[in-house]
From TrEMBL:
This is Semialdehyde dehydrogenase NAD-binding domain-containing protein. It comes from the Bacteria. It comes from Candidatus Gottesmanbacteria bacterium RIFCSPHIGHO2_02_FULL_40_13.
């Protein structure tokens, strides 16, 4: 417990010595892309479960709603908009109207709705003394949490990191014992719809606006590390993001030492024979075909290449991030640590195991 507090995490919400049940989580945006994935992932956890889904009448209802309900028949559905109650019922959903009394029925809220829709509900959750993780990437009203790291501060509203932040926090945590300075260049998905309106500049990450990276948020996670975000390039419909890390270390290190530190950390794997994002995707496809799994089993953060270098204080590496996986998993990690007080790195290991993500061998033929 003391170590957890020293890392900045608050006192656990629940006492596992007094409760003999899973922690109950409500998902706002349960019929959205992230919401349905998160409900499915929580269904695999032994200590967490999604018991309530908050939904609305939009195109995703018929696209994902019935599948979500069919796969999780015990999920209770509510809407916060009374005007949509009748339409949802007409579609065949058993939906109730969410009131403040329902906050008592769960241990934690996770809001997966798009940017621009989370602040009001987060404040409502806080007024009812219910901790909430806001996944949309909106900033300014909560503590940034990107397991295994959490920003300093107080309160029960937590802002979840986006794909880029969640990858940088894992790499930075794995190498924190040797790093003094880090520069990151980013290739990410392109999007122009942000906070409910079109913008002139391409935007997809609420922590990284084209040409204007918001570094103070990362510095809250790495207060003693000099971290700089450099170039940001964006292309449409990109699943795998790419980060180019240029790192300075306190002492001389070689490639083997760096790879060992990364490979020991959950959620990340070094693949010496992968030299491109295409190679990473092929590894993913081969493992999926061999395992017969519905979801790709490869860990979502892959370090490409393994070219040896002489001992140096400067290390450069290319990292590939599966944007679909890296967004879902940290919500589960953070929920487990916030609710039960599990050490954040151990929480990540548990999530990886229950999701059946594997660290593939160096080479797959």
């Amino acid at each position: 417990m003391s170590n957890l507090i020293e890392q900045g995490w608050p006192k656990p919400i629940l006492d596992k010595n007094k409760l003999d049940r899973k922690a109950r989580i409500a998902i706002r945006g349960a019929f959205g892309q992230l919401g349905t994935r998160l409900i499915g992932a929580l269904g695999k956890q032994l200590d967490l479960e999604a018991t309530i889904g908050l939904v609305r009448r939009d195109p995703t209802v018929e696209l994902r709603g019935f599948a979500a309900v069919e796969g999780h028949p015990d999920l209770q559905l509510f809407t916060t908009d009374e005007s949509e109650l009748g339409a949802l019922k007409d579609l065949g959903f058993n939906v109730g109207l969410w009131t403040n009394d329902h906050f008592r029925d769960v241990d934690l809220m996770i809001d997966t709705t798009p940017p621009g829709k989370g602040a009001d509900f987060a404040y409502r959750s806080r007024e009812n003394n219910k901790p909430i993780i806001v996944q949309s990437g909106e900033r300014g009203f909560g503590r940034l949490v990107s397991p295994p790291l959490i920003a300093g501060g107080e309160g029960i509203i937590f802002e979840a990191g986006d794909c880029n932040v969640n990858a940088i926090s894992v790499v930075g945590s794995a190498l924190s014992g040797i790093l003094t300075r880090v520069g990151v260049n980013i290739l990410m998905q392109h999007g122009r719809f942000f906070h409910g309106r079109l913008r002139d500049e391409p935007v997809i990450s609420t922590y990284f606006v084209s040409g204007k990276p918001t570094q103070e948020h990362l510095q809250h996670l790495f207060p003693i590390l000099d971290l700089t975000v450099g170039n940001i390039s964006q292309v449409p419909s990109l699943r795998y993001y790419t980060h180019n890390f240029v790192m300075e270390t306190a002492d001389l290190v070689d490639a083997g030492e760096v790879r060992d530190l990364l490979d020991k950390h959950p959620r990340i794997r070094c693949l010496p024979h992968a030299t491109s994002t295409y190679d990473v995707r092929e590894y993913d496809n081969i493992l999926r075909a061999a395992g017969g799994a519905r979801l790709p089993p490869i860990v979502p953060i892959i370090v490409q290449g393994g070219t040896p270098f002489q001992k140096s204080k400067t290390v450069e590496m290319i990292v590939t991030i599966d944007s679909r996986r890296i967004t879902v998993l940290p919500n589960i990690d953070a929920a487990r640590t916030l609710l039960w007080g599990v050490e954040p790195i151990e929480s990540m290991r548990i999530t990886d195991e229950t999701m059946h993500f594997v660290k593939p061998p160096d080479e797959i033929k």
